[in-house]
Amino acid sequence: MSTLGAPGTPVGDSARLAAEHGCHGLEIRVHPDEEVHLGLTAARAARVRREVADAGLEIACLAGYPKVCGPGPVVDELRALVELAASLGAPAVRVFPGGEREDLGLERIAAVLPDLRANDVRLLVETHDSHPTGEAALRLVAPFGEPERVAVLWDAVHPWRAGEPPERTRRVLGEYLAYFQVKDVAAADPTPVPPGEGAVPLDVCGKLLADWSGWVSLEWERAWYPGIAPLPVPLRAAATWFARWHPH
Fold this sequence. Notes:
Organism: Saccharothrix ecbatanensis
CATH superfamily: Divalent-metal-dependent TIM barrel enzymes
Strand content: 15-25%
Oligomer: single chain
Domain Xylose isomerase-like TIM barrel: 16-242
Keywords: Isomerase
Pfam families: AP_endonuc_2
Protein name: Sugar phosphate isomerase/epimerase
Low-confidence stretches: none
């Protein structure tokens, strides 16, 4: 599960909640308002790493906010995120497309590719904002030809809402699919609902992912929608969905 669903909660508490609901990993939001942020000291990073391990979990991904095609000093932010992942033992970092300048995005990813290789960290571009479909996100990662280093995070909502059915998302991403975020919404309302209660074809996604090996993470956007149910409610629904398609 992502800690986005428990804003302001210490990572250790989130890890214990995740473990209580059968999770194997924790996706940690990297944000100035949270315990884990860019510039975290080595001592604090070691403490976070230990608390997650003590709960019996792995850190699955760091959910960062750099926009690879957007404005600003993005390369420095990307490097800081990769360094933080290395200090926490996280295998991957999530970033956003954030703009139409694909040439800029490719240039920036290329700039940090040596950092990714040196730290054994994978950069995941989410299907989001300017590149909501698998087909669009693929354009930012495929040119590198290193899916083990630069790949795509499939957010269940955005490709579907942009008109790309799950079958196509799965097919076009192929070996570049590295991570799946399970989430659900109603057809005409962006407010999150527990998996299975909305219009996102999650059963189709489950069938498509049944023989796939990679992290599946619940993203419950309570940081942006504070009025929605507390995290245990969607966690139970996500666990039920996962058990249906991944019985082992």
